[in-house]
Design goal:
four-stranded antiparallel beta sheet, about 25% strand, about 30% helix, single chain, alpha/beta, 9 helices
Length: about 230
């Protein structure tokens, strides 16, 4: 098999003196979608932030397309093709929907055009002149995702994108993710909604106490449901 696009080995991370990640190992090949599953506090969001160097400190190995990034700054890591959609969304209230969309710089070629993004997210086209804070929670989440698609990023880090959203919006996001996967994007999805994540992912990594404690392939879901329920508290 080809070399993984993203290789994480023995990753440790801290916030101040709090040691959050305790040797995380996983990998993802180009075009795959993997999830990080686990209860609150398991280290899922910290893992994603650590890939971009957004935690206080980190050690171990994070290789992107063969490039070791542990010693790099966040802006240098992003230019290797990583796009991050944070849980808090980060929408600028003083800017319109379209101004928010156009704000991030392009990291490389191959980003979606504004027209392509509006085709994927018709709600945003309708609200393009609305202030960021006047968008609904679902529209803000769509905007946070859409914003990174313009940049040319090919590895998408999506942190809790369904949290607190109405089922109809969650279904829309599921369709968008399937479309992105079909276009060849590589996706790391932090998710608590297992029913949402299960049909999308090639592989699930289950986290507990800052470590990956189980790996479940898509074809193993039926046989490992009981184990997953135990870890996730479903």
């Amino acid at each position: 098999m080809s070399t993984p696009l993203l290789q994480v080995h023995d990753l440790h991370a801290w916030y101040g003196e709090s040691h959050i990640l305790h040797g995380v190992d996983f990998e993802i090949h180009e075009g795959e979608l993997v999830t990080l599953l686990g209860r609150n506090g398991a280290g899922r969001s910290t893992t994603v932030k650590s890939l971009l160097g957004l935690t206080g400190s980190r050690k171990g190995s994070v290789r992107i397309a063969g490039v070791e990034t542990i010693g790099l700054q966040t802006h240098e890591i992003a230019r290797l093709g990583l796009g991050y959609c944070p849980e808090e969304r980060g929408i600028f209230s003083s800017l319109s929907c379209e101004e928010n969309l156009l704000l991030p710089p392009k990291l490389g070629t191959g980003g979606l055009s504004v027209d392509e993004i509006y085709e994927m997210f018709p709600n945003l086209k309708e609200r393009r002149h609305s202030q960021g804070t006047r968008l609904s929670g679902g529209e803000q989440q769509m905007l946070a995702m859409a914003r990174i698609l313009r940049t040319g990023a090919r590895v998408l880090l999506l942190d809790e994108i369904t949290e607190g959203l109405a089922p109809v919006i969650v279904q829309t996001l599921g369709r968008v993710i399937r479309t992105l996967k079909s276009k060849g994007y590589t996706i790391v999805l932090v998710e608590q909604n297992f029913r949402f994540a299960a049909p999308l992912a090639d592989r699930h990594y289950v986290m507990e106490h800052g470590r990956i404690v189980a790996t479940v392939r898509k074809d193993e879901l039926a046989s490992k449901t009981e184990m997953l329920n135990e870890y996730l508290g479903v």
